[in-house]
Amino acid sequence: MKKNTTGNIPQELGASATKRNSAHMLPVCDWLSDLPENTQLTDLIEVQFKNTRKGYFHNSAHLPLEKGVKVVVEANPGYDLGEVVLTGKLVELQIKKNKIDASRYEIRQVLRIATEEDLEHAKQAHAREHETMIKARELAKSLGLEMKIGDVEYQGDGSKAIFFYIADGRVDFRQLIKVYAETFRIRVEMKQIGARQEAGRIGGTGPCGRELCCSTWMINFSSVGTGAARLQNISPNPQKLAGMCAKLKCCLNYEVPVYEDASKAFPSRNIPLETKDATYYVFSTDPLAGTLTYSTDQHIPANLVIIPAARAHEVIAMNKRGEKPVSLEGNRMEEAEIGYQTGHGELTRFDRKKKKNHRR
Predict the structure, then answer these.
(1) Is the pTM of this model over 0.85?
(2) Element (H, E) at 19
(3) Structural domain of residue 334, as residue ranges?
(4) What is the C-alpha separation between 256 and 261, in angstroms, rounded?
(5) Which of 1, 6, 46, 252 has the fewest CB atoms nearer than 10 Å to its CB?
(6) Domain membership flag for residue 351
């Protein structure tokens, strides 16, 4: 099979466009592309435009298209220019995965493979986007609208532009569309996006040191709650849990199913364990290790004991029968370990001076 790549970036679009496209390319592994009959199963192709915007088109003319080829496709009005990212049977699976209603979604045609003239025309149109976005923000502010223009994308022929905006509520931008049409002399389309979609279109680097997931491979955005952080015992620090979009990080959801499955073997956190010497309450859990940490105080760590989930169920069963074990028979944590688990520790350890070596 062919190696998984993110597609070839044509040099004709210039250095700035190449940098923009390569930074926000959504990689697609076309693992059926090396099969001769793949393109014969369907004439559908998936085309990517600026950043994360994609569309599906019919290759009725049976052009020799493969991943990375620039094509001119039908638009309303005129034409648009994009890059082929997927062909064959996988396109139908993508449409099904993205839950696109074929009765409402109009699938247009591929007109031709892009020529040098088409690429140059598209380059000139894209060069106007930043200037248009700055001017569009000024016009929206002058009309007193509570909205932010996050990005502007020109169509390949330069006759139309999509203005992506962010707003907390409904915005009446009918007057704004008239002003934009008169100022920029183009056909205007307004499209509302969220904070996560804006981060995906702009791109950037996350605190992990990698490109943002929303600008590289993520297609659908699922809701992220603080319960995901609590389940994984992550410190509820808003500054650490928030991503570049000021929302909860999408990666908090990645390992949630694993923790949920592992937590099914744990007893309820509301059930204390009764022993002959004390009553123990759940202080913390480690689903991946399958252990629970119990404390003799409900609010602060005191006499912490780590036991496996099986031992906790055994003690609960003994308590139901009216029996109390002598002890939990777990591993008692030392004071230094308690500080490490609770995230505090001894700060003065950084102030201790190392012993000097007096050897000559």
Answers:
(1) no
(2) helix 14-23
(3) 264-342
(4) 9
(5) 1
(6) no
